[in-house]
Amino acid sequence: MGSFQLEDFAAGWIGGAASVIVGHPLDTVKTRLQAGVGYGNTLSCIRMVYRRESVFGFFKGMSFPLASIAVYNAVVFGVFSNTQRFLSQHRCKELEASPTRTLSDLILASMVAGVVSVGLGGPVDLIKIRLQMQTQPFREADLHVKSSTMTRRQQPHYAGPVHCMAAIVRQEGLAGLYRGASAMLLRDVPGYCLYFIPYVFLNEWITPEARAGPSPSAVWLAGGLAGAISWGTATPMDVMKSRLQADGVYFSKYRGVLDCISQSYRQEGLKVFFRGITVNAVRGFPMSAAMFLGYELSLQAIRGDHAAMDP
């Protein structure tokens, strides 16, 4: 069997679509908590979004992630699976042994997936956050702008994802699509290590040795726990990334990731780095459970390997 397999990309696409549908409402709440003002805690934010924008407010900006994040996850899962497969085959060929994966293979493959995710996912995340944030409440004191300008600017700034992308490129150039990329890199490289590695080991721990492969319930549980661990620990850099990417909808406040960290800490203290940690961890479970279950079931269907995962 060759080291490069396209079915990992196809299965990743299906898993990515499933995770977006399941997780987008809580993703909207997470973004508003991290980058918005006046929302208070998680429940307060949910009530305010519902009261102001009805249930549709939770799905704001979903069409673009559904179309693009599925592709993004296809690349991430495809790169991770093929990288760790290549590493294990290359190492075992030198040792003249059967291919097996080690912790070092998983770490390196996760890091490669994290770097690739920023290159592809940075613009996707930026546009999603801009669309989610454009109707948030702003305080005039925060913007230092005149009331007449404030009234005009509280109207939706972008007509949709294509208009949003065009506006960013027109105002900031192509580099503008990678606003917050440094914070995203600091989030995703360790974040994917704490995503894929716990999933692999939890799956092996839950699955009895006699079974040929994990059951759907084992995949669901291991995937959900891995997502909660990854998103919970990634929250500090996720807050900085959200703020940097939301910055620029109406005005620019931060000069870079270090300035964002400094200003956020100076104004709100240490607790700012844990804003949205609850919703991140809670959202991470169903999103990742859906992601891994969609990935594994579709991979099994594509390969026709019905013995790999028992119901």
TrEMBL record:
Name of this protein: Solute carrier family 25 member 48 isoform X1
Recorded superkingdom: Eukaryota
Lineage of origin: Eukaryota, Metazoa, Chordata, Craniata, Vertebrata
Similarity section: Belongs to the mitochondrial carrier (TC 2.A.29) family.
First-listed, main subcellular location of the protein, grouped into a coarse class: mitochondrion
Subcellular location: Mitochondrion membrane
Species for this entry: Echinops telfairi (Lesser hedgehog tenrec)
Keywords recorded for this protein, A-Z: Membrane, Mitochondrion, Repeat, Transmembrane, Transmembrane helix, Transport
Signal sequence, renumbered to the chain: none
InterPro entries linked to this entry: MCP (IPR002067), MCP_dom_sf (IPR023395), MCP_transmembrane (IPR018108), Mitochondrial_Carrier (IPR050567)
A Pfam family that the UniProt record links to this protein: Mito_carr
Membrane topology of this protein: Multi-pass membrane protein
Segments passing through the bilayer: 57-80
Positions annotated as Solcar repeat: 3-86, 101-205, 214-301
